[in-house]
Amino acid sequence: ILCQLSVAAALEFKYHHTKELEEYLKGVHAAYPSLTHLHSIGRSVEGRDLWVLVLGRFPSHHNIGIPEFKYVANMHGDETVGREILLHLIDFLVTSYGRDPVITRLLNNTRVHIMPTMNPDGFEATKEPDCYYTRGRYNRNGADLNRNFPDAFENNSAGIQPETRAVMDWIKNETFVLSANLHGGALVASYTFDNGNPVTGSLNGYSRSPDDDVFVHLAKTYSSNHASMYKGTGCDNRQTFPEGITNGYSWYQLEGGMQDYNYVWGQCFEITLELSCCKYPPAEQLEKFWRDNKVALIEYIKQVHLGVKGQVTDKNGNPIPNAIVEAKGRPHICPYRTNEQGEYFLLLLPGTYVINATVPGFKSMLKTVEIPDNTGNFSALKQDFSFSEVSDQIRSRVASCPKIPLYQELARTSAAVKPTLNILVLMTIMLVIFK
Protein backbone atom coordinates (compact mmCIF):
# COMPACT_ATOMS: atom_id res chain seq x y z
CA ILE A 1 0.00 0.00 0.00
CA LEU A 2 2.83 2.39 0.89
CA CYS A 3 4.46 1.62 -2.46
CA GLN A 4 1.22 2.39 -4.31
CA LEU A 5 0.72 5.63 -2.39
CA SER A 6 4.27 6.76 -3.11
CA VAL A 7 3.84 6.16 -6.85
CA ALA A 8 0.57 8.12 -6.92
CA ALA A 9 2.03 10.96 -4.88
CA ALA A 10 5.10 11.18 -7.12
CA LEU A 11 3.11 12.14 -10.22
CA GLU A 12 3.01 15.91 -10.30
CA PHE A 13 1.47 18.20 -12.88
CA LYS A 14 4.73 19.04 -14.59
CA TYR A 15 6.68 17.96 -17.66
CA HIS A 16 8.44 14.63 -17.24
CA HIS A 17 11.61 14.25 -19.25
CA THR A 18 12.93 10.87 -20.39
CA LYS A 19 14.49 9.70 -17.14
CA GLU A 20 11.54 10.82 -15.00
CA LEU A 21 9.04 9.29 -17.41
CA GLU A 22 10.87 5.95 -17.36
CA GLU A 23 11.12 5.98 -13.57
CA TYR A 24 7.42 6.68 -13.24
CA LEU A 25 6.38 3.89 -15.62
CA LYS A 26 8.71 1.41 -13.92
CA GLY A 27 7.36 2.48 -10.52
CA VAL A 28 3.76 1.91 -11.63
CA HIS A 29 4.60 -1.53 -12.95
CA ALA A 30 6.43 -2.44 -9.73
CA ALA A 31 3.46 -1.28 -7.64
CA TYR A 32 0.83 -3.02 -9.83
CA PRO A 33 2.59 -6.05 -11.37
CA SER A 34 -0.60 -8.08 -11.91
CA LEU A 35 -2.46 -5.20 -13.56
CA THR A 36 0.30 -3.80 -15.78
CA HIS A 37 2.93 -4.89 -18.28
CA LEU A 38 5.75 -2.53 -19.28
CA HIS A 39 7.76 -3.02 -22.44
CA SER A 40 9.62 -1.07 -25.11
CA ILE A 41 8.44 -1.57 -28.70
CA GLY A 42 11.68 -0.16 -30.13
CA ARG A 43 14.09 2.74 -29.93
CA SER A 44 14.25 6.26 -31.32
CA VAL A 45 17.01 7.50 -33.60
CA GLU A 46 19.02 8.60 -30.54
CA GLY A 47 18.41 5.27 -28.78
CA ARG A 48 15.63 6.21 -26.36
CA ASP A 49 13.12 3.48 -25.57
CA LEU A 50 9.58 3.76 -26.93
CA TRP A 51 7.80 2.67 -23.76
CA VAL A 52 4.32 1.18 -23.68
CA LEU A 53 2.45 0.41 -20.46
CA VAL A 54 -0.31 -2.18 -20.88
CA LEU A 55 -3.18 -2.31 -18.38
CA GLY A 56 -5.83 -4.98 -17.91
CA ARG A 57 -6.72 -8.25 -16.26
CA PHE A 58 -4.39 -10.00 -18.73
CA PRO A 59 -1.75 -7.30 -19.29
CA SER A 60 1.09 -9.43 -20.66
CA HIS A 61 -0.75 -11.24 -23.48
CA HIS A 62 -3.81 -11.16 -25.71
CA ASN A 63 -6.80 -13.09 -24.38
CA ILE A 64 -9.52 -14.37 -26.73
CA GLY A 65 -12.53 -12.06 -26.72
CA ILE A 66 -10.72 -9.16 -25.03
CA PRO A 67 -10.26 -6.26 -27.48
CA GLU A 68 -6.99 -4.32 -27.70
CA PHE A 69 -7.04 -0.52 -27.36
CA LYS A 70 -4.21 2.03 -27.60
CA TYR A 71 -3.41 5.68 -26.96
CA VAL A 72 -0.28 7.22 -28.53
CA ALA A 73 0.96 10.73 -27.68
CA ASN A 74 3.83 13.12 -28.41
CA MET A 75 4.22 11.94 -32.01
CA HIS A 76 5.28 15.49 -32.70
CA GLY A 77 7.88 16.17 -30.03
CA ASP A 78 6.80 19.76 -29.39
CA GLU A 79 3.13 18.82 -28.85
CA THR A 80 3.30 17.93 -25.20
CA VAL A 81 -0.10 17.95 -23.51
CA GLY A 82 -0.99 14.39 -24.56
CA ARG A 83 2.30 13.07 -23.16
CA GLU A 84 1.44 14.32 -19.67
CA ILE A 85 -2.28 13.57 -19.57
CA LEU A 86 -1.58 9.95 -20.55
CA LEU A 87 0.64 9.65 -17.47
CA HIS A 88 -2.25 10.95 -15.37
CA LEU A 89 -4.62 8.56 -17.13
CA ILE A 90 -2.34 5.69 -16.09
CA ASP A 91 -2.36 7.00 -12.53
CA PHE A 92 -6.16 7.27 -12.53
CA LEU A 93 -6.69 3.77 -13.95
CA VAL A 94 -4.37 1.91 -11.57
CA THR A 95 -5.56 3.75 -8.45
CA SER A 96 -9.25 3.33 -9.42
CA TYR A 97 -9.06 -0.39 -10.23
CA GLY A 98 -10.82 -2.41 -7.54
CA ARG A 99 -12.39 0.75 -6.10
CA ASP A 100 -14.39 2.20 -9.00
CA PRO A 101 -16.75 -0.43 -10.49
CA VAL A 102 -16.73 1.17 -13.97
CA ILE A 103 -12.94 1.31 -14.22
CA THR A 104 -12.69 -2.20 -12.78
CA ARG A 105 -15.06 -3.63 -15.41
CA LEU A 106 -13.35 -1.63 -18.13
CA LEU A 107 -9.92 -3.08 -17.34
CA ASN A 108 -11.31 -6.56 -16.77
CA ASN A 109 -12.74 -6.54 -20.30
CA THR A 110 -10.24 -4.42 -22.23
CA ARG A 111 -6.48 -4.51 -22.76
CA VAL A 112 -5.34 -0.89 -22.79
CA HIS A 113 -1.95 0.06 -24.28
CA ILE A 114 -0.57 3.53 -23.46
CA MET A 115 2.46 5.05 -25.23
CA PRO A 116 3.14 8.47 -23.65
CA THR A 117 5.72 9.44 -26.27
CA MET A 118 6.39 8.23 -29.80
CA ASN A 119 9.01 10.93 -30.38
CA PRO A 120 11.17 11.26 -27.24
CA ASP A 121 14.04 12.77 -29.23
CA GLY A 122 11.85 15.61 -30.49
CA PHE A 123 10.56 16.31 -27.00
CA GLU A 124 14.07 16.52 -25.56
CA ALA A 125 15.16 18.75 -28.47
CA THR A 126 12.46 21.31 -27.60
CA LYS A 127 14.40 23.34 -25.06
CA GLU A 128 11.97 26.23 -24.65
CA PRO A 129 8.18 25.69 -24.40
CA ASP A 130 6.47 27.40 -27.34
CA CYS A 131 2.86 27.61 -28.46
CA TYR A 132 3.84 27.43 -32.10
CA TYR A 133 6.07 25.42 -34.40
CA THR A 134 9.56 24.34 -33.25
CA ARG A 135 12.18 21.97 -34.65
CA GLY A 136 11.20 19.51 -31.91
CA ARG A 137 8.18 18.58 -34.03
CA TYR A 138 10.43 16.24 -36.01
CA ASN A 139 12.49 13.23 -34.97
CA ARG A 140 16.29 13.35 -34.81
CA ASN A 141 16.51 12.74 -38.57
CA GLY A 142 14.29 15.72 -39.30
CA ALA A 143 11.32 13.55 -40.31
CA ASP A 144 7.69 14.31 -39.54
CA LEU A 145 6.46 10.99 -38.13
CA ASN A 146 2.86 11.78 -39.08
CA ARG A 147 3.88 11.97 -42.74
CA ASN A 148 6.03 8.85 -42.60
CA PHE A 149 3.65 5.89 -42.95
CA PRO A 150 2.70 4.06 -46.16
CA ASP A 151 -0.20 5.88 -47.80
CA ALA A 152 -3.26 4.25 -49.34
CA PHE A 153 -3.62 6.92 -52.04
CA GLU A 154 -0.17 7.81 -53.32
CA ASN A 155 3.44 6.67 -53.13
CA ASN A 156 5.04 8.04 -49.99
CA SER A 157 8.71 8.62 -50.80
CA ALA A 158 9.69 9.35 -47.17
CA GLY A 159 12.13 6.80 -45.73
CA ILE A 160 10.56 4.83 -42.88
CA GLN A 161 11.99 6.07 -39.57
CA PRO A 162 12.87 3.81 -36.59
CA GLU A 163 9.96 5.19 -34.56
CA THR A 164 7.54 4.62 -37.44
CA ARG A 165 8.84 1.10 -38.07
CA ALA A 166 8.45 0.25 -34.38
CA VAL A 167 4.81 1.36 -34.42
CA MET A 168 4.09 -0.49 -37.67
CA ASP A 169 5.50 -3.72 -36.17
CA TRP A 170 3.53 -3.11 -32.97
CA ILE A 171 0.29 -2.75 -34.95
CA LYS A 172 1.12 -5.92 -36.89
CA ASN A 173 1.78 -7.95 -33.75
CA GLU A 174 -1.34 -6.93 -31.81
CA THR A 175 -5.05 -7.14 -32.63
CA PHE A 176 -5.80 -3.45 -32.11
CA VAL A 177 -9.45 -2.53 -32.58
CA LEU A 178 -9.56 1.12 -31.58
CA SER A 179 -6.97 3.84 -31.08
CA ALA A 180 -6.35 7.57 -30.79
CA ASN A 181 -3.23 9.63 -31.26
CA LEU A 182 -2.89 12.81 -29.22
CA HIS A 183 -1.62 16.07 -30.73
CA GLY A 184 -1.66 19.80 -30.05
CA GLY A 185 -2.05 23.08 -31.91
CA ALA A 186 -5.84 22.95 -32.32
CA LEU A 187 -8.94 21.76 -30.45
CA VAL A 188 -10.76 19.14 -32.51
CA ALA A 189 -11.27 15.41 -33.07
CA SER A 190 -10.21 14.53 -36.62
CA TYR A 191 -11.03 11.26 -38.38
CA THR A 192 -10.09 9.22 -41.47
CA PHE A 193 -9.42 9.71 -44.30
CA ASP A 194 -6.62 12.28 -44.15
CA ASN A 195 -5.86 11.71 -47.82
CA GLY A 196 -8.18 10.90 -50.69
CA ASN A 197 -9.09 10.89 -54.37
CA PRO A 198 -12.30 11.11 -56.42
CA VAL A 199 -13.25 7.56 -55.40
CA THR A 200 -13.52 8.63 -51.75
CA GLY A 201 -15.19 11.96 -52.54
CA SER A 202 -12.20 14.28 -52.43
CA LEU A 203 -13.64 16.37 -55.28
CA ASN A 204 -16.30 17.49 -52.81
CA GLY A 205 -13.75 18.27 -50.10
CA TYR A 206 -14.51 15.22 -47.97
CA SER A 207 -12.71 11.86 -48.06
CA ARG A 208 -15.20 9.25 -46.89
CA SER A 209 -14.22 5.82 -45.59
CA PRO A 210 -16.57 2.80 -45.74
CA ASP A 211 -17.07 3.27 -41.97
CA ASP A 212 -17.64 7.01 -42.01
CA ASP A 213 -20.67 6.75 -39.69
CA VAL A 214 -18.59 4.96 -37.07
CA PHE A 215 -15.77 7.49 -37.33
CA VAL A 216 -18.19 10.41 -36.89
CA HIS A 217 -19.58 8.68 -33.80
CA LEU A 218 -16.09 8.09 -32.38
CA ALA A 219 -15.04 11.71 -32.91
CA LYS A 220 -18.29 12.99 -31.36
CA THR A 221 -17.87 10.66 -28.40
CA TYR A 222 -14.61 12.37 -27.54
CA SER A 223 -15.63 15.94 -28.34
CA SER A 224 -18.99 15.73 -26.53
CA ASN A 225 -17.34 14.44 -23.35
CA HIS A 226 -14.56 17.05 -23.46
CA ALA A 227 -15.00 20.20 -21.38
CA SER A 228 -15.08 22.52 -24.41
CA MET A 229 -14.15 20.72 -27.65
CA TYR A 230 -17.81 20.10 -28.49
CA LYS A 231 -18.38 23.87 -28.83
CA GLY A 232 -16.39 23.79 -32.07
CA THR A 233 -14.96 27.28 -31.66
CA GLY A 234 -11.42 26.20 -32.55
CA CYS A 235 -8.48 28.38 -31.60
CA ASP A 236 -9.31 31.57 -33.50
CA ASN A 237 -12.17 33.17 -35.37
CA ARG A 238 -10.95 31.86 -38.72
CA GLN A 239 -11.24 28.18 -37.81
CA THR A 240 -14.43 26.54 -36.58
CA PHE A 241 -15.32 22.85 -36.28
CA PRO A 242 -19.06 22.07 -35.92
CA GLU A 243 -19.51 19.86 -32.84
CA GLY A 244 -15.74 19.83 -32.40
CA ILE A 245 -15.03 17.25 -35.13
CA THR A 246 -13.69 17.22 -38.69
CA ASN A 247 -12.94 14.83 -41.50
CA GLY A 248 -9.16 14.91 -41.85
CA TYR A 249 -9.17 15.66 -45.58
CA SER A 250 -11.76 18.42 -45.11
CA TRP A 251 -9.39 20.14 -42.71
CA TYR A 252 -6.22 19.69 -44.77
CA GLN A 253 -4.84 16.93 -46.97
CA LEU A 254 -2.16 14.81 -45.33
CA GLU A 255 0.00 12.11 -46.92
CA GLY A 256 1.50 9.28 -44.85
CA GLY A 257 -0.60 9.81 -41.73
CA MET A 258 -0.80 7.31 -38.91
CA GLN A 259 -4.59 7.18 -38.55
CA ASP A 260 -5.14 6.18 -42.19
CA TYR A 261 -2.41 3.53 -41.87
CA ASN A 262 -4.09 2.07 -38.78
CA TYR A 263 -7.44 1.84 -40.55
CA VAL A 264 -6.26 0.44 -43.89
CA TRP A 265 -3.43 -1.89 -42.85
CA GLY A 266 -3.93 -2.36 -39.11
CA GLN A 267 -7.70 -3.06 -39.08
CA CYS A 268 -7.78 -0.51 -36.27
CA PHE A 269 -10.06 2.54 -36.16
CA GLU A 270 -7.96 5.53 -35.09
CA ILE A 271 -8.79 9.21 -34.71
CA THR A 272 -6.50 12.18 -34.12
CA LEU A 273 -7.15 14.30 -31.05
CA GLU A 274 -5.92 17.89 -31.09
CA LEU A 275 -6.05 18.83 -27.41
CA SER A 276 -4.58 22.31 -27.01
CA CYS A 277 -4.35 25.51 -29.02
CA CYS A 278 -0.88 25.95 -27.58
CA LYS A 279 1.45 23.13 -28.60
CA TYR A 280 3.70 23.32 -25.51
CA PRO A 281 1.81 25.26 -22.81
CA PRO A 282 3.17 26.24 -19.39
CA ALA A 283 3.26 23.38 -16.87
CA GLU A 284 0.82 25.16 -14.55
CA GLN A 285 -1.93 24.58 -17.15
CA LEU A 286 -1.51 20.79 -17.23
CA GLU A 287 -3.92 20.10 -14.37
CA LYS A 288 -6.72 21.90 -16.23
CA PHE A 289 -5.95 19.95 -19.40
CA TRP A 290 -6.27 16.72 -17.42
CA ARG A 291 -9.63 17.78 -15.96
CA ASP A 292 -10.88 18.83 -19.41
CA ASN A 293 -9.99 15.46 -20.99
CA LYS A 294 -10.45 12.93 -18.18
CA VAL A 295 -14.05 11.89 -18.91
CA ALA A 296 -13.53 11.92 -22.69
CA LEU A 297 -10.47 9.65 -22.43
CA ILE A 298 -12.48 7.03 -20.51
CA GLU A 299 -15.63 7.26 -22.62
CA TYR A 300 -13.59 6.86 -25.78
CA ILE A 301 -11.96 3.64 -24.53
CA LYS A 302 -15.43 2.18 -23.95
CA GLN A 303 -16.16 2.45 -27.70
CA VAL A 304 -13.84 -0.49 -28.34
CA HIS A 305 -16.86 -2.60 -27.33
CA LEU A 306 -19.07 -1.32 -30.17
CA GLY A 307 -20.27 -3.71 -32.83
CA VAL A 308 -19.64 -7.43 -33.19
CA LYS A 309 -16.84 -9.88 -32.47
CA GLY A 310 -16.31 -13.62 -32.66
CA GLN A 311 -14.22 -16.53 -33.89
CA VAL A 312 -14.05 -18.39 -37.18
CA THR A 313 -13.35 -22.12 -36.73
CA ASP A 314 -13.09 -25.30 -38.82
CA LYS A 315 -15.06 -28.53 -38.44
CA ASN A 316 -12.87 -29.58 -35.51
CA GLY A 317 -13.25 -26.29 -33.66
CA ASN A 318 -9.76 -25.10 -34.58
CA PRO A 319 -9.36 -21.38 -35.31
CA ILE A 320 -9.01 -20.27 -38.93
CA PRO A 321 -6.57 -17.35 -39.35
CA ASN A 322 -6.84 -14.98 -42.32
CA ALA A 323 -10.52 -15.61 -42.93
CA ILE A 324 -12.16 -12.45 -44.30
CA VAL A 325 -14.95 -11.12 -42.07
CA GLU A 326 -16.69 -7.88 -43.01
CA ALA A 327 -20.11 -6.28 -42.83
CA LYS A 328 -21.97 -6.46 -46.13
CA GLY A 329 -21.99 -3.12 -47.92
CA ARG A 330 -18.81 -1.81 -46.31
CA PRO A 331 -15.85 -3.69 -47.81
CA HIS A 332 -12.36 -2.49 -46.97
CA ILE A 333 -9.79 -1.95 -49.69
CA CYS A 334 -7.51 -4.26 -47.68
CA PRO A 335 -9.99 -6.92 -46.46
CA TYR A 336 -10.32 -7.31 -42.68
CA ARG A 337 -9.14 -10.76 -41.65
CA THR A 338 -9.10 -12.95 -38.56
CA ASN A 339 -6.00 -13.13 -36.36
CA GLU A 340 -4.05 -16.27 -35.40
CA GLN A 341 -6.80 -17.23 -32.94
CA GLY A 342 -9.42 -16.94 -35.67
CA GLU A 343 -10.83 -13.78 -34.05
CA TYR A 344 -12.43 -10.80 -35.70
CA PHE A 345 -13.63 -7.47 -34.29
CA LEU A 346 -15.86 -5.11 -36.32
CA LEU A 347 -16.79 -1.69 -34.95
CA LEU A 348 -20.38 -0.99 -36.01
CA LEU A 349 -23.09 1.30 -34.70
CA PRO A 350 -26.30 -0.27 -33.32
CA GLY A 351 -28.48 -1.66 -36.12
CA THR A 352 -29.07 -4.65 -38.39
CA TYR A 353 -26.17 -5.95 -40.46
CA VAL A 354 -25.26 -8.93 -42.60
CA ILE A 355 -21.84 -10.27 -41.61
CA ASN A 356 -19.97 -12.07 -44.38
CA ALA A 357 -17.30 -14.61 -43.38
CA THR A 358 -15.14 -15.99 -46.19
CA VAL A 359 -12.47 -18.68 -46.14
CA PRO A 360 -10.58 -18.49 -49.45
CA GLY A 361 -11.58 -21.41 -51.68
CA PHE A 362 -14.84 -22.12 -49.85
CA LYS A 363 -18.38 -20.78 -49.95
CA SER A 364 -18.98 -17.64 -47.91
CA MET A 365 -21.16 -17.75 -44.81
CA LEU A 366 -23.67 -14.93 -44.18
CA LYS A 367 -25.32 -14.18 -40.84
CA THR A 368 -27.78 -11.38 -40.06
CA VAL A 369 -27.17 -9.77 -36.68
CA GLU A 370 -29.00 -7.14 -34.66
CA ILE A 371 -26.31 -5.12 -32.91
CA PRO A 372 -27.24 -3.31 -29.69
CA ASP A 373 -25.20 -0.63 -27.91
CA ASN A 374 -23.10 -2.84 -25.67
CA THR A 375 -20.46 -0.29 -24.68
CA GLY A 376 -22.02 -0.04 -21.21
CA ASN A 377 -21.73 -3.83 -20.83
CA PHE A 378 -18.09 -3.81 -21.98
CA SER A 379 -18.64 -6.53 -24.56
CA ALA A 380 -19.50 -6.35 -28.24
CA LEU A 381 -22.14 -8.73 -29.62
CA LYS A 382 -20.65 -12.21 -30.05
CA GLN A 383 -21.18 -14.02 -33.37
CA ASP A 384 -19.04 -17.04 -34.25
CA PHE A 385 -18.71 -18.81 -37.61
CA SER A 386 -18.01 -22.52 -38.02
CA PHE A 387 -17.00 -23.88 -41.45
CA SER A 388 -17.87 -27.57 -41.28
CA GLU A 389 -16.31 -28.32 -44.69
CA VAL A 390 -12.95 -26.78 -43.79
CA SER A 391 -10.18 -28.93 -42.37
CA ASP A 392 -7.18 -27.70 -40.41
CA GLN A 393 -4.87 -28.21 -43.39
CA ILE A 394 -5.59 -24.69 -44.66
CA ARG A 395 -5.20 -22.94 -41.32
CA SER A 396 -1.65 -21.74 -42.02
CA ARG A 397 -2.55 -19.99 -45.28
CA VAL A 398 -1.01 -16.54 -45.11
CA ALA A 399 -2.58 -13.44 -46.60
CA SER A 400 -0.97 -10.04 -46.73
CA CYS A 401 -1.94 -6.64 -48.01
CA PRO A 402 0.70 -4.91 -50.16
CA LYS A 403 2.10 -1.56 -49.00
CA ILE A 404 1.17 0.20 -52.24
CA PRO A 405 -1.28 3.05 -52.88
CA LEU A 406 -4.33 0.78 -52.90
CA TYR A 407 -6.83 3.47 -53.82
CA GLN A 408 -4.93 4.34 -57.01
CA GLU A 409 -6.36 1.24 -58.67
CA LEU A 410 -9.90 2.29 -57.81
CA ALA A 411 -9.25 5.76 -59.18
CA ARG A 412 -7.96 4.32 -62.45
CA THR A 413 -11.00 2.07 -62.74
CA SER A 414 -13.31 4.97 -62.04
CA ALA A 415 -11.58 7.16 -64.63
CA ALA A 416 -11.56 4.37 -67.20
CA VAL A 417 -15.29 3.81 -66.89
CA LYS A 418 -16.26 7.44 -67.56
CA PRO A 419 -15.16 7.66 -71.24
CA THR A 420 -16.74 4.28 -71.92
CA LEU A 421 -20.05 5.53 -70.58
CA ASN A 422 -19.74 8.73 -72.63
CA ILE A 423 -19.14 6.73 -75.82
CA LEU A 424 -22.17 4.53 -75.09
CA VAL A 425 -24.36 7.59 -74.58
CA LEU A 426 -23.05 9.17 -77.80
CA MET A 427 -23.65 5.96 -79.78
CA THR A 428 -27.19 5.73 -78.41
CA ILE A 429 -27.96 9.32 -79.46
CA MET A 430 -26.53 8.74 -82.94
CA LEU A 431 -28.60 5.58 -83.30
CA VAL A 432 -31.78 7.46 -82.36
CA ILE A 433 -30.94 10.24 -84.87
CA PHE A 434 -30.19 7.70 -87.59
CA LYS A 435 -33.50 5.94 -87.03
TrEMBL record:
Any one GO BP annotation for this protein: peptide metabolic process
Short name of one Pfam family: Peptidase_M14
Secretion signal span: none
GO CC annotation terms, alphabetical: extracellular space
Active site: 274 (proton donor/acceptor)
Domain Peptidase M14, chain residue ranges per copy: 14-304
Keyword Mitochondrion assigned: no
GO molecular function terms attached to this record: metallocarboxypeptidase activity; zinc ion binding
Keyword set, alphabetical order: Carboxypeptidase, Glycoprotein, Hydrolase, Protease
Keyword Manganese in record: no
Family: Belongs to the peptidase M14 family.
UniProt name for this protein: CBPM Carboxypeptidase
Source species: Malurus elegans
Gene field: Cpm
